[in-house]
Hints:
Elements: H1 2-24, H2 32-47, H3 53-58, H4 61-71, H5 75-83, H6 87-90, H7 97-100, H8 102-126, H9 131-134, H10 156-171, H11 177-200, H12 206-229, H13 242-262, H14 266-290
Helix pairs in contact: 2-12, 4-11, 5-11, 8-10, 8-12, 10-11, 10-12, 11-12, 13-14
Amino acid sequence: MRIGLDFLMLNNQKLDTCVANNFKNLKVSFLFLPFSLLLVIALYLFFKGAFSFESYANVQKELFLYLNSLLSKFPNLQLNITELGDVVIFLPFLTVLIVYTPKFWESLLTSLVVSSIFTNLLKRIFAVPRPAAMFDHDSFVILGDTLSGNTSLPSGHSIATFTITTTIFFAFMPQKKTLKVGWFFFVFLIGLIIVSSRVGVGAHYPFDVLIGSIIGYISAIVGVYISKKYNFWAWLTHKKYYPITLCLFSICAFALINKILETNLIVFYFSLVSLLITTFIITYIYVKKKY
């Protein structure tokens, strides 16, 4: 085990440099497509007269009911997948990268702050009622908690998911052009599977998810640009501050244990195990450095 960890530590600098170089290649022009898509969606809703709560819900009612009916046929799968839209569940799978590519985490944290601002601001601005507040509960399937507040647009889980997956996409972009297409489809397919579960559990309309995903993509790019100019999180990934990182891991672990006790979904176990593995690695590195 010790030899394996030492070998990995020798190679982490190369991976971190690769991630940093990929982020340098990020262009402002990458924002053109997502903003264009948001404009197209806005024009579609405008011409459909769907700028009121009721019309917004009705214009996508058939699609919502169809997707909800289709996806909810696999309730346990949907409940597990949708939890990955929660950063407390998703991030532990990536914590090991704090050791092997700090640059990735520095950009990711900044992107998540940006996405959090977008999420809270836009939900307050639009204040769209959830499907459970607009449709008869007998007309569609609700899995998990029944959400009926005015926080439907945009989907926060979708924003968080695509903030993370977009950061992963650009950070670990292959150098070979032939691999880039496959990498694109692989990463964003995972993102689409996760966000579609929000419709499957009856928590969001399709447009909530689509708009949230686009905003998550934008958040990731904006976060990477900010991180390149203002490195707020370098201290968190520095070995000297690993005890603070371990304290944060402990808080996250307690949150996961609490979720296991409440809901007992298998995704919580996988997330917790990932977090514990990283905790062991970081503890090993810190103790070795100190002594």
